[in-house]
Amino acid sequence: MAPVIKLQSDLLLNLYIQPKASRDQIVGVHGEELKIAITAPPIDGKANAHLTKFLSKVFKVPKGDIKILKGEQGRHKQVKIISPRIIPENIISLL
After folding, report:
1. Most buried among 4, 5, 46, 94, by the most CB within 10 A?
2. Distances, alpha carbon 16 to alpha carbons 26, 37, 52, 76, in Å
3. 56, 63 in Cβ contact below 8 A?
4. InterPro entries recorded for this chain (predicted)?
């Protein structure tokens, strides 16, 4: 399983989330997943909401175009990004 998969105009990301980090950032590859650190705690869906907001800024898409397909309750997530306008360099290298 690859950390990033391109599906026509969409991206499918296999993520490992590190909540309560000092800052929001794409850390790099963690096993077969892309590690993302976020500042939000994993309480009452706050981490998922924060992750969606962070990814929408990184890929320049509306928050509604970020779909958490798997892993709502865990650190391991599969996220679909619909028609990203920008793909960061560190993600392009994984395609």
Report:
1. 4
2. 10, 9, 14, 5
3. yes
4. DUF167, YggU-like_sf
Structure confidence at residue 55 (pLDDT): 98
Amino acid at 42: P
In the predicted structure, residue 58 carries a pLDDT above the cut 90:
yes
Measure the CA–CA gap between 77 and 65, rounded to whole angstroms: 16
Asked if the model's pLDDT at residue 21 lies above 90, the reply is: yes
Element (H, E) at 10: strand 10-18
**Residue burial 6-32, b: 16+ Cβ < 10 Å; e: rest:** eeeeebbbbbbbbbeeeebbbeebbee
The topology under which CATH files domain 4-93 is: Conserved Hypothetical Protein Mth637; Chain: A; (3.30.1200)
How many other CB atoms are found less than 10 A from the CB of residue 72?
9
d(CA 2, CA 31) in angstroms, rounded, equals 9
